[in-house]
Amino acid sequence: MLNTIRCSAALFRCLPVLSGGTTPIVTTSRQLSNQEALNPIQLTPLQRFLLTVGSGIGVFSDPRRADLLSVFGELSGPVALRYMRQKMLEDPVGSRILREKPRIRTHTVDLNYLRQLPDNSFGKAYVTFMDHYHYSPDDRHIVRYVDDHELAYVMQRYREIHDLVHTLLEQPTDMLGEVVVKWVEGMQNRLPMCLTGGFFGSLRLAPKQTKDYLKNHLDYALRVGLHGDFLMNVYFEEHWTKDMAELRSSLNIPPPPERLYKSRSRIHNLTA
């Protein structure tokens, strides 16, 4: 087992070398241009296995390693990604998203425009969230280990709407907020990294957070995850000006519960 971990770590250090000979897969869109490319790194089955094991051990040892979290999320999620794509293909808006392949990056979203929107709008809430935590849409890692072009985009879309989901559910990026979002994403998307993140993250909650979680937020996450609209089928970019309460209502998402305590700190905003 120790040798496996060492081999995985060595492989992870060699990733820049592995990526040197790949041909970029360029995501196109009828609306956007100059998008960042999805550059798949071709791995042998052995390399894929070692990297999955190594990144999995690494992320559970240090959840702050967003790079390892991204790698493990990609390598452990092919079945879930196919499920997500099928759900999108069965929905007219989801199908359009797959065709147009919009991206959430600083060169595709006018953040200054969003700052001028009314305070009750979804777009204003999103940019306020990003400004408050000093986040950028470009912080999201580009997918590297999903060979299928369309599945790679599904994974990229999931990552790039993560902060939009935080905004929609009014969840901060402390541990409790991340656990709520992870449960919603896990139940809707079936990504292993989200389901394990929701479970193990809940075990790391502080006593006051645990009380709040069990009394209000776990039930809320279950209601949204099981009964809310499939969020991968939401063309968020077309709802910037919409009232937050109206948008949630249209997606069968109830208002978020009030917190029983004030969050004093935040953790890294992580997604698979």
From TrEMBL:
GO terms for cellular component: extrinsic component of mitochondrial inner membrane. It catalyses: a 4-hydroxy-3-methoxy-5-(all-trans-polyprenyl)benzoate + H(+) = a 2-methoxy-6-(all-trans-polyprenyl)phenol + CO2. Its EC number is 4.1.1.130. It comes from the Eukaryota. Pathway: Cofactor biosynthesis; ubiquinone biosynthesis. It is an enzyme of class 4 (lyase). HAMAP family: Coq4. Lyase that catalyzes the C1-decarboxylation of 4-hydroxy-3-methoxy-5-(all-trans-polyprenyl)benzoic acid into 2-methoxy-6-(all-trans-polyprenyl)phenol during ubiquinone biosynthesis. Belongs to the COQ4 family. This is Ubiquinone biosynthesis protein COQ4 homolog, mitochondrial. It comes from Fasciolopsis buskii. The lineage of its organism: Eukaryota, Metazoa, Spiralia, Lophotrochozoa, Platyhelminthes.
